[in-house]
């Protein structure tokens, strides 16, 4: 794994979100970033111009010294600056909006690439990474990262306005902006610290919010709709959602606001009182004319832009918090996730001799599963794996597919360590029906075609897979044939029964076999099939598996006995290995289980 854990999410990293947005923008779009910077600077210039032009008009009116022509000119400048400022505001909005969309798209892609990049799947069951993937989308704060661009543009524009106002005020009297700037900046920093605390709290609340989201999805989605109603746990879900949500919200509460609420306004009042007192004395003493006092008053009002700009800064802090998470998810798997991802392209005829597990040890973070497993699967033969629930049968398949690597020991194909092979190329040799295969809410053509994405997908290309998997039994009844969406949630779609889905999954694997996969793995392939469909599979078993190395995981001994060899796994090891006849003669665990399962049928026959 890429070594990504929740402990990397420190407040320091979060604070750097804004810097990361700034760093990313030129890469998202250099021309738009340049344009945005230019508009922001121009706005700041126009703001100072607006104050100066306004002051000049007031001075003209007060003194009438400039005459009508002078007043008209100053008024024209004032109006031009005013209109230009008005016109720039939507331009700023358009450019920053476009950049925001592009940033969202870039970070969305980054997150997706990061989640998909690791060769294995261990990262997806790491809670810290699951939280981070949610945080990367701004789900904790409710602001997508792109909102950081719009708020950053508005903040930069305001700050420059404030700075321009401070400079103008300094031209009236050099020290006047100092107490005001100090008060506004101090207040702003206090508030920022509070917002960061709130963001930290929001991120810490992510596990609780994820639980709440899960309960909500169960309640409003259709996946659990039947069970929720039949078992009647609507109230439980409601309660679970409320409690998890409130727990998440509790974490958000209590970011102390005393300093900015009480001391902040006091600081502002004092600094402004000092400045206004000086101006009052200066005006009454005749040291300040109409124009400078007008400039000073406008500048004082405009200097508020150096302080806390509530909505904008809140949005910036919240939206930018997602960025470090998106980048971190994007880096997933850049370092090798599996211990040594091989690069050797496997021979297309692999395996020609055997697949071998040698003293393989493996466990998930919380439990050991395989404890020194040895197993040989001769190429071109079929092996059935039998074992109690949780014995590690599916885990063994995942290791073969290199979704995980053994902790120790090795898996070899014709003597070549799997770890030295390019995992993607090796996987093209595999056709797997997982026990928990996916029911894609896509067309039947996609569902089966995923078996080999780059293969011909015309109807004829699916013929053999459709025949051997039993798809043909219901294919003619699908409204749009191969193009029928397999979900009622799409126009013209239909839903399939559990057994029909299982045949789709089998057809997918057989389609891969048609296109060169040489190892067929069937993890409980007949679990949902009716008696007739199961009989069809038995009937076709030899045809399906001919020339392939087949691994069959099943609790159904009628299926298991079809295999050339059978192994029994227990305690993380192979405890029995041989043909059905050999294992029956051994009279061990297999014989016991086989007899147990066939007893009801034998008794029924004797009734
Ligand atoms: N992703 C995972 N993370 C943590 N533990 C897991 C994971 N997958 C499986 N396990 C655990 O590993 C053990 C072996 O699981 P596995 O699915 O390989 O068993 P199995 O023999 O296929 O069982 P079954 O007959 O019920 O399908 C079980 O105890 C299971 O709880």
From TrEMBL:
Subcellular location per the Swiss-Prot or TrEMBL entry: Cell membrane
Coiled-coil regions listed: none
UniProt main location, coarse: membrane
SMART domains: AAA
Similarity field: Belongs to the ABC transporter superfamily. Lipid exporter (TC 3.A.1.106) family.
Organism of provenance: Nonomuraea jabiensis
Domain ABC transporter residues, every copy: 355-596
Record keywords, A-Z: ATP-binding, Cell membrane, Membrane, Nucleotide-binding, Transmembrane, Transmembrane helix, Transport
The organism's place on the tree of life at top rank: Bacteria
Name of protein: ATP-binding cassette subfamily B protein
GO CC annotations, alphabetized: plasma membrane
Record-level Gene Ontology MF annotations: ATP binding; ATP hydrolysis activity; ATPase-coupled lipid transmembrane transporter activity
Membrane topology term: Multi-pass membrane protein
Matching Pfam families: ABC_tran (PF00005)
Transmembrane segments: 34-59, 71-95
């Amino acid at each position: 794994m890429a070594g990504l854990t929740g402990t990397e999410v420190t407040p320091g990293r979060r604070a750097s979100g804004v810097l990361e947005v700034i760093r990313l923008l030129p890469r998202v779009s250099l021309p738009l970033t340049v344009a945005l910077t230019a508009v922001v600077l121009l706005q700041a210039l126009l703001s100072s111009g607006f104050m100066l032009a306004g002051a000049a008009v007031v001075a003209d009116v007060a003194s009438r010294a400039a005459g009508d022509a002078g007043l008209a000119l100053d008024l024209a400048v004032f109006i031009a600056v005013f209109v230009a400022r008005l016109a720039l505001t939507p331009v700023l909005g358009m450019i920053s909006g476009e950049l925001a969309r592009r940033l969202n798209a870039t970070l969305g892609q980054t997150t997706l690439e990061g989640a998909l990049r690791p060769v294995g799947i261990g990262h997806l069951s790491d809670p810290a990474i699951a939280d981070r993937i949610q945080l990367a989308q701004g789900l904790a704060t409710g602001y997508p990262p792109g909102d950081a661009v719009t708020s950053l543009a508005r903040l930069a524009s305001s700050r420059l306005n404030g700075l321009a106002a401070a400079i103008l005020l300094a031209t009236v009297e050099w020290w006047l902006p100092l107490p005001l700037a100090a008060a506004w900046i101090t207040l702003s920093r206090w508030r920022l610290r509070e917002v960061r605390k709130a963001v930290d709290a929001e991120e810490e609340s992510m596990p609780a919010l994820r639980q709440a989201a899960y309960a909500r999805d169960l309640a409003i989605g259709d996946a659990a709709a039947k069970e929720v109603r039949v078992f009647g746990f609507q109230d439980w879900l409601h309660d679970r959602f409320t409690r998890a949500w409130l727990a998440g919200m509790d974490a958000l509460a209590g970011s102390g606001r005393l300093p900015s609420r009480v001391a902040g306004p006091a600081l502002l009042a004092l600094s402004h009182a000092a400045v206004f007192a000086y101006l009052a004395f200066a005006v009454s003493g005749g040291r300040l004319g109409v124009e400078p006092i007008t400039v000073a008053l406008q500048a004082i009002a405009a200097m508020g832009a150096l302080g806390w700009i509530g909505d904008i800064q809140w949005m910036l802090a919240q939206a930018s918090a997602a960025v470090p998470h998106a980048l971190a998810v994007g880096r997933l798997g850049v370092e090798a996730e599996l211990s040594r991802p091989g690069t050797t392209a496997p021979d297309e005829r692999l395996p020609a001799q055997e697949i071998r597990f040698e003293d393989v040890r493996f466990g998930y973070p919380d439990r050991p599963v395989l404890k020194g497993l040895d197993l040989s699967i001769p190429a071109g033969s079929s092996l059935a794996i039998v074992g109690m629930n949780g014995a590690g049968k599916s885990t063994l398949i995942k290791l073969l597919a290199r979704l995980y690597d053994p902790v120790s020991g090795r898996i070899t194909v014709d003597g070549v360590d799997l770890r030295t092979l390019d995992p993607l190329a090796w996987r093209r040799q595999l056709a797997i029906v997982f026990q928990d295969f996916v029911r894609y809410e896509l067309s039947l053509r996609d569902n089966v075609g995923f078996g080999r994405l780059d293969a011909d997908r015309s109807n004829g290309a699916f013929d053999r897979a459709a025949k051997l998997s039993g798809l043909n039994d219901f294919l003619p009844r699908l409204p749009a044939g191969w193009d029928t969406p397999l979900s009622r949630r799409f126009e013209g779609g239909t839903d399939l029964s559990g057994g029909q889905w299982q045949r789709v999954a089998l057809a997918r694997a057989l389609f891969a076999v048609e296109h060169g996969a040489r190892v067929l793995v069937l993890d409980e392939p007949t679990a949902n099939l009716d008696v007739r469909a199961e009989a069809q599979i038995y009937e076709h078993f030899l045809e399906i598996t001919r020339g392939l190395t087949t691994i069959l995981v099943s609790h159904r001994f009628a299926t298991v006995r079809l295999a050339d060899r059978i192994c029994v796994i227990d305690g993380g090891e192979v405890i029995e290995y041989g043909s059905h006849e050999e294992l029956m003669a051994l009279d061990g665990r297999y014989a016991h289980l086989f007899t147990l399962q066939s007893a009801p049928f034998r008794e029924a026959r004797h009734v």
